[in-house]
Amino acid sequence: MSDVANKVETLMEAMPYLQKYAGKTVVIKYGGNAMINAELKDAVMHDVVLLKLLGMRPVLSHGGGPGINKMLEKLDIPVQFIGGLRYTSEDTMRVVEAVLVGQVNTELVGFINKLGGRAVGLSGVSGDIYHCHKRSEELGYVGDVDYVNADAINAVLDAGFIPVVAPVGTDGQGNTYNINGDTAAGKLASALGAEKLILLTDIEGLCNSIELRDVISYLNIKDVQMLKDKGVIAGGMIPKVDCCVQAIEEGVTSVHIIDGRRPHSILYEAFTAENLGTTIGTAQESVGIKD
Q: What tens digit of pLDDT does each residue of 196-242 get?
């Protein structure tokens, strides 16, 4: 088969998905290794722009953990995680804001614009998008989201731009808070009534065993607590899965944890029948859980 014929066949295979997602909002949580690997970053940004060109409304919700860790190390500020969440002192919070808003967000917006995607960068403080309160004194300036004001995001989407949102929130009293990137993306997807939430990770999906890389392809939310009790869902995977469950409960149609180290994994997930990573929902019984 010729290259042209292959391309035509690929487009025909994608047609049902293009029809299904036309005009729909898709929230993509971007973080991990895909942020620090130049080839993967290029692939992700191309995917986001292509989703827009194909008639979808992509929203890029990013993290920046590797960059934050690098800057903290340079400034000799200790890094500590409690229950999968970063302990955030006042000094750490300043670094978080500088890296997420001043560095990562600006870089991603510039990258998308270079590709013709017309992006607009926003902090969760902008327009009181993420209104927060302090979760606990133990975690410092880590915020729990009280509500999401999606007006600014919708205005950007309606104007034909791609919103790029940093997970920093405010209590409305001049204090800013570090929000777990997965949690922020889940809350944003719920507030926007997103058709799909995609979380890019540094692993193939939720696995029974990290060593064996045996992926649970479908996770019914009723089995989440059991997997936590078994230790399958632990560490940084806890807030990731919790945000997925909450997004489903709050009306997001489908949630997917996929391997961001695979080039163009977003397009594979959106436009093919290939089963990537872990889908979380309520439509069927769990598939792939081992005793």
A: 999 998 888 899 988 888 899 999 999 999 999 999 998 878 888 99
If DSSP codes are grouped into helix, strand and coil, which group holds residue 79? coil
Cα–Cα distance between 189 and 198 in angstroms, integer?
10
Let me know if 121 is exposed, middle or buried by CB neighbors in 10 A (0-12, 13-18, 19+): buried
- DSSP 8-state code for residue 261: T
**Residue 221 burial (CB < 10 Å; 0-12/13-18/19+)?**
middle
In the chain, the amino acid numbered 165 is V
CA distances (Å), origin 108, targets 23, 119, 229? 23, 8, 38
**3-state class of 42 per DSSP?**
helix
Neighbouring CB atoms inside 10 A of 55's CB total: 12
Q: Give, as one character, the DSSP assignment of residue 109.
A: H
pLDDT digits 0-9 by tens, 135-165: 999 999 999 999 999 999 999 999 999 999 9
In the chain the domains, ranked by start, together with CATH numbers, are 14-281 (3.40.1160.10)
Is 261 within 8 Å of 274 (Cβ atoms)? no
Please check whether residue 207 is in contact with residue 259, taking contact to mean a CB–CB distance below 8 angstroms: no
Helix axes 65-74, 90-97, angle to 10 degrees: 120
